[in-house]
Amino acid sequence: xxxxxxxxxxxxxxxxxxxxxxxxxxxxxxxxxxxxxxxxxxxxxxxxxxxxxxxxxxxxxxxxxxxxxxxxxxxxxxxxxxxxxxxxxxxxxxxxxxxxxxxxxxx
Amino acid sequence: xxxxxxxxxxxxxxxxxxxxxxxxxxxxxxxxxxxxxxxxxxxxxxxxxxxxxxxxxxxxxxxxxxxxxxxxxxxxxxxxxxxxxxxxxxxxxxxxxxxxxxxxxxxxxxxx
Lengths: 107, 112
Known about the structure:
The complex is a heterodimer. Chain A is mainly β.
């Protein structure tokens, strides 16, 4: 079983839709959590950190449930430019990456 | 953007030849990492370094070695390239272990 599991998708959504991605992790010693975004044939870049209290950055909301070892990312009002692969990442003194969820936003 | 450059960006090599990939950073970060990315697997850690001459193995280190003789440079060597090492290789740096990682643009390696 992989340490960080994500639904690979692809999620195909129309512009303006709300879409949610989930991620589970198996190591309860994980200390911090992130969502990264990766465009096709590019390097990953940090989208946002994930805090226990939940956090929001514009159209993006991240939630962490430590008891269930579950992380989520919600994207509201999807834009064409949101099309990318979203990587769930956990930190246990080294970053461990999920395989990513593909999002395709269509006009 | 963080100052990380990888070279070469693309390489085709033959099975059995040695290959060295270079990662150069201008951020003076202590922590450096090499990952490979393959479809369905995400990024997997090959080797990492916590400082000059301080390196350790990641989860997929077989067939790879690294060296770090200067803070700014982290070299990854495939001792005898195999087709299973065809992949995209990313170098990353962090301020502290597990902090936000900044990545180089990647090296696309094909072993034929």
